[in-house]
Predict the structure.
Amino acid sequence: MATDDKKPSGPDLSQGIPAADLADGAMLAGHISDDEVLLVRQGGKLFALSAHCTHYHGPLADGLLVGDTVRCPWHHARFSLQTGEALAAPALAPLSCWQVEERDGKITVKDKKPQPAPSKTGSAGEHFVIVGGGAAGFAAAEMLRRRGFAGSITMISNDDAAPVDRPNLSKDYLAGSAPEDWVPLRGDDWYAENRIDLKLKTEVTALDTKAKELTLSDASKLKFNKLLLATGAEPIKLDIPGIGQKHVHTLRSLADCRAIIAQAKDAKRAVVIGASFIGLETAAALRARDIEVHVVAPEKRPLERVFGPQLGDFIRALHEEHGVKFHLENTVTAIDGKQAKLKTGGAVDADLVIVGVGVRPRLALAEKAGLAVDKGVSVNGFMETSAAGIYAAGDIARWPDPISGERIRVEHWVVAERQGQIAALNMMGVRTPFNSAPFFWSQHYDVPINYVGHAEKWDAIDIEGDVMKRDCVVRYTLGGRVLAVASIYRDGDSLKAGVELEKRAAKAAASA
Ligand SMILES: Cc1cc2nc3c(=O)[nH]c(=O)nc-3n(C[C@H](O)[C@H](O)[C@H](O)COP(=O)(O)OP(=O)(O)OC[C@H]3O[C@@H](n4cnc5c(N)ncnc54)[C@H](O)[C@@H]3O)c2cc1C
Ligand code: FES
């Protein structure tokens, strides 16, 4: 039997609320028996949807209404108010929707609506192939089926695991606070149920753009009508003595993560080489396992190149508070057994070493095929490469970002998923530009940092709030123009900043 404190909060919406309690543009969280429901009045219409995001359960009542969508406060997923569809990742599953009625000054939520079935798109004879079983590849396959693509889909991945929630590999799963069944993006049955031929442990070794044919690692050939390249990135390997030892790891795949966890069980001390996002998140996860952690990195402040000095200092202080020891402006020159030798002299003992010194996009396949490549696979605003019918998305794609006006390539989970979704729509012939503001989040202990936009350089940093008190909005501006906004516990501001950046880009596009 449910206890009182487990009962959903807010009014019982089946009993109705006074209509005057919900102004236009307002949201109210309540419940219908055990279901938490969000009631929304937007543009004069009423909507009732699940109150929590289908990604990590973010409370949508704290989100933002934008047109006929609601955006999640935590990682900016977008849902249709009309249908509940997860229009933009990282959420992929829809929200449930209920009928709503306004009568005699009262709003009442009625029955749950059935999920609308997609109408069939494309011919059953078409074959779409996705190279890569990561964020972009999975999101593309999911979108193709969700929108009713009738043809066949093959997804090829050289990984031995089906697509996983990669961000979790340096956070809760690595820390031991999330079970492994949280990690797959979908269960194994999902692929067969959705007629997706998932070929794991299979490398695509060549692409013939004229013949529209791939060569696989077993020398077999595979024809396609349309192709998505989503080969992601791989960790940069350090060329130092001792790097090949069993206790030295990089972290990209579930297999990497399992190997680290297996050794972390008996480890007392770890050295993390590199104060990158992955390096620092790994440091936090290992501290949760009570392992002594030393971070060795050449920079003066962690993550200063992305976040600037103030957030860099905060991140360092936060990790130090949790016992991490930094060796900054330093590097590891060799790993001699259990000793990581430092450039400045001396050594740090480590029975576990994680190398997190950045990643390199996997471009070899595209390069060999003769696709236009410019420090990334060049795509147009519809994610199409220089070869018609061949698309690229995620960590490998360099696209014309309408917000910065530059061609950019980023390594963000949400961007990769959304680009995969947009590529899927365009592959189906639904011409849709990619125009979302880039977004990423990073989690250090209990502190999430959200970042929207893209600033490779800036001439001013404007801080609202207090960084050290974990309550701030940090704006990166160039020539007076805001390029990007980082925030801690200011989710509403982060969402609004994304909307502003997208509006500015739309305005610029309209006047061009
Ligand atoms: C541990 C970790 C934590 C992260 N945390 C965050 C985070 O908190 N926030 C954030 O924004 N981003 C985060 N990222 C980055 C994010 O995961 C990537 O930006 C995202 O996964 C990129 O998606 P993708 O589809 O381009 O590539 P991937 O997800 O890397 O997928 C590429 C796939 O292609 C396969 N492949 C490559 N070449 C071939 C080939 N020739 N043949 C067959 N298969 C091939 C690979 O095996 C892989 O399955 C994290 C990354 C890691 C590793
Ligand atoms: S919890 Fe909603 S987007 Fe992550």
Observations:
- The CA atoms of residues 265 and 289 lie 8 Å apart.
